[in-house]
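Sync notes, pocket subgroup
Present: LS, DG
LS reminded everyone that the earlier model was apo-only. Rerun requested with histidyl-adenosine monophosphate included. Inputs:
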Amino acid sequence: MPKVKSKEKKVKKPGKEKEIIKKERVIDSESDKIAKGSKKTPQILRGFKDILPGEQKYWDLLRKKIEQITLDYSFERIDPPLLEETGLFSRSIGKETDIVGKEMFSFIDKGEENISLRPEATAQIARAYISHGMFNLPQPVKLYYVGPMFRYDRPQSGRYRQFNQFGCEVFGDMHPVIDAQIVILTYNFLKELGIPTTVQINSIGCNNCRKEYKVQLVNYYKTQKQDLCEDCKERLGKNPLRLLDCKEEKCVAIKEDAPQIIDFLCDECKNHFVKVLEFLDELEIPYNLNAHLVRGLDYYTKTVFEVWAENEEKKGQNALGGGGRYDGMVEMLGGRATPAVGVSLGLERIILKIKELNLPVPEKEKRDLFVGQLGEASKRKTLKLYETLRAEGLKVAECFAKDGLKSQLEIANKLGVKYTLILGQKEMSEGTIILRDMEAGVQETINYNKVIKEVKKRLEM
Ligand code: HAM
């Protein structure tokens, strides 16, 4: 649709105004083409998906499970916005990461702010923790979120440009038991859905232990430079830890012999990691020490982990979830020094797994009762009856759009209702209504004024 022109006048700087108006005209003429021109139907964007009614049972299941597990582990919900200043993400996730460097949906808005659709929510929650003064609350502060994230990724199975995450973040406690609890929550969430997983875990230490490691890593990679992909050649100079994230086959092979960060950890980071593992051992959580796991975001310190569906060790790029500790982020964003740890899980990937494993998913709650009608006067009366039954807490369905009884009964059958009420001309004049037992296929005529009582009696309500 054409833009509302009055909005354009709000732009303050006259020079820029022209530019913005010009851009909007281009958008106008594009949409005009769609509206007036060819018969071409607009297509959904690549990497985006409609979640259709038939899919909703999977989402309902996950929503319920999320509500339960966050209640069990005492997390409170937070819903940050979908748009933020681009700087929030580039500062925290890191400019050289794939997410910030290649995958953000960023644009200049009408107020000339550089903003981005959120590619993840951890940085947002840290921003919210600071801006709402949550450091004044009793610590740790435990928050969770569910919602869409946006990354201009190469679309493929389990990889979309809009996808949903469930995430948990804990602020204000540095004890390794918190890292372990985040891993345990993640593992249990998937296990209780019926998805067996292994936890891939590593420690990438603190800035101090990473200094020497980076030197050694660069030395090693320099000897392999001629075989690296173009991106990795650049990473070598800019952000060597990201060399370990590369998914290119030749770089994955080179990674195998790279030095391992675990050999460079300082005493404090080593002790922290050992304790995390001891807590996981205590609960017999299966984990795999993955020496090259560094995760694709710059903000991590100490513990990092991912959960992979069992038998998918080789396809690590389709992790169901991942997270870790990020003790420096709050301070780096301008807050007081606050340790933090968290995880996010990809809901589309979990649903794919549920389907692949054929796991049981509860169907939508069934209706008990159907209200059928014959003729205009009956339609009016049953329209009201339907509302009364619903207000009485009965699970009732209808199809006022249809007139014929046969087609209405077909719908009632499809819905699997136990009883159908039918109000025709005869019943209207007699002050009665037909009550049909759908399973037995028998029907009786009852007093219209007693319909609620009779139905409730049969449904044992
Ligand atoms: P992440 O590893 O970038 O971490 O994403 C977490 C999960 O989101 C992945 O394991 C995956 O299941 C899902 N995911 C990521 N990209 C896509 C995509 N393009 N399509 C479908 N699913 C995807 C984070 O986002 C961090 N915020 C995790 C965290 C929380 N760290 C500390 N706290």
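DG: Residues 1-18 have pLDDT under 50 and may be disordered.
LS: The pocket of histidyl-adenosine monophosphate is lined by residues 120, 122, 151, 153, 158-160, 163, 165, 167, 169, 319-324, 326, 342-346, 348-349 (CB under 6 Å).
Action: DG to write up.
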